């Protein structure tokens, strides 16, 4: 397992509107131990351009980490959307549903799903609009529903947000929904663990949470963001990686990608991360998992 992958690509994602996103950053680390490097794109990255890279231009044996939720809560209520007849039975069917409803949305956005008469009932949206089904009967707190992996993230010092929450700077719901359109488009091109089994060779995509990498780099969940080269160098050193060259200002999205690429390289060989104790076959097929949650 230690040499299963030769390249490690971390993608800081964005669910914002528009074609090109300042919040999207890509960084690649190689097995040879060299410093991770940012991957630029003329004019900035779009979701479509990232999809093109993942589908057509990945180096061989790349472990891809995508910073979003690859699915929605299922185990807590026994369904993604309890009470909705169209509620899918597994993650790939969920991705297909999102794509079907949002096929006309430009730039791989997912606004049509958020505004859908039925789907919107399950989300907390802006302007105080909380859907009647935002809270599952079994979720007594007001933070919304969580996947099993997210409950486990909290035990590791993270502060996860419900993927049904679309409000606030830290929300990941919009990113997750737009990412599901990408995951749907990648079917047949790139396996998504653990929805798909880990193949013996080739590239694989996993869900990542950049805060897990930051904590491993001696940061905290509340102080995980880095915009300074000295702090970035210290974080990379903690992960056993050389520092990157200082070519000017660094933004937190680029720093997240660089740190997570180095973290993926350092941890991809840990067998226990591929066999989490709480990960059942049913959870794998419905909710998926976050790589790095043991």
Written description of the protein model:
The chain is α/β, with parallel strands linked by helices. Helix content is 30%, strand content 9%. The chain starts with 6 loop residues before the first strand and ends in an 8-residue tail after the last helix. The mean pLDDT is 92.
Question: How many domain units?
Answer: 2
Largest sheet: 5 strands, mixed
Radius of gyration: 18 Å
- Helix/strand/pairing category: alpha/beta
In DSSP terms (H or I, runs of 4 or more residues), the helix count works out at: 9
The tally of strands reads 5
Name the strands of the widest sheet in spatial order: 3-2-1-4-5
Mean pLDDT: 92
Low-confidence spans: pLDDT under 50, at least 5 residues?
none
- So what's the oligomer here? single chain
Distance between the termini: 16 Å
Shape: globular
Order of helices and strands: EEEHEHHHHEHHHH
Helix content: 25-40%
Proportion of beta-strand residues: 5-15%
In short:
With 294 residues, this protein is of the alpha/beta class. The chain has helices at 47-56, 91-102, 111-115, 148-155, 173-185, 210-216, 229-238, 252-267, 281-286; strands at 7-12, 25-30, 37-39, 62-67, 204-208.
Name a few traits of the molecule:
294 residues; alpha/beta; 2 domains; 5-stranded mixed beta sheet; 9 helices; 5 strands
Helices and strands, with pairings:
Elements (H helix, E strand, L loop, with lengths): L6 E6 L12 E6 L6 E3 L7 H10 L5 E6 L23 H12 L8 H5 L32 H8 L17 H13 L18 E5 L1 H7 L12 H10 L13 H16 L13 H6 L8
Parallel strand pairs: 1-4, 4-5
Antiparallel strand pairs: 1-2, 2-3
Helix pairs in contact: 2-5, 6-8
């Amino acid at each position: 397992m230690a040499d299963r992958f030769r390249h490690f690509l971390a993608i800081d994602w964005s669910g914002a509107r528009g074609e090109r996103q300042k919040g999207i950053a890509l960084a690649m680390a190689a097995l040879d131990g060299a410093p991770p490097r940012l991957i630029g794109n003329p004019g900035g990255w779009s979701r479509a351009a990232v999809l093109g890279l993942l589908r057509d231009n990945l180096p061989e044996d790349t472990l891809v980490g995508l910073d979003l939720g690859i699915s929605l809560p299922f185990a807590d209520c026994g369904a993604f959307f309890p009470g909705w007849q169209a509620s899918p039975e597994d993650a790939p069917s969920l991705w297909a549903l999102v794509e079907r409803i949002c096929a006309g949305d430009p730039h791989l956005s997912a606004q049509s799903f958020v505004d859908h008469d039925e789907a919107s009932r399950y989300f907390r949206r802006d302007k105080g609009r909380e859907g009647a089904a935002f809270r599952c009967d079994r979720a007594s707190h007001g933070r919304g529903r969580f996947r099993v992996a997210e409950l486990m993230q909290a035990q590791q010092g993270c502060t996860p947000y419900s993927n049904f929450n679309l409000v606030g700077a830290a929300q990941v719901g919009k990113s997750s929904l737009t990412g599901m359109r990408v995951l749907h488009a990648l079917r047949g091109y790139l396996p998504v663990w653990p929805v798909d089994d880990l193949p013996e060779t080739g590239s694989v995509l996993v869900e990542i949470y950049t805060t897990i990498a930051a904590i491993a780099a001696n940061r905290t969940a509340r102080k995980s963001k880095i915009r300074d080269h000295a702090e970035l160098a210290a974080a990379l050193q903690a992960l056993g990686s050389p520092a990157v060259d200082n070519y000017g200002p660094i933004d937190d999205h680029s720093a997240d990608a660089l740190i997570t690429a180095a973290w993926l390289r350092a941890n991809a060989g840990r067998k226990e991360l591929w066999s989490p104790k709480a990960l059942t076959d049913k959870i794998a097929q419905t909710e998926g998992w976050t790589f790095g949650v043991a």
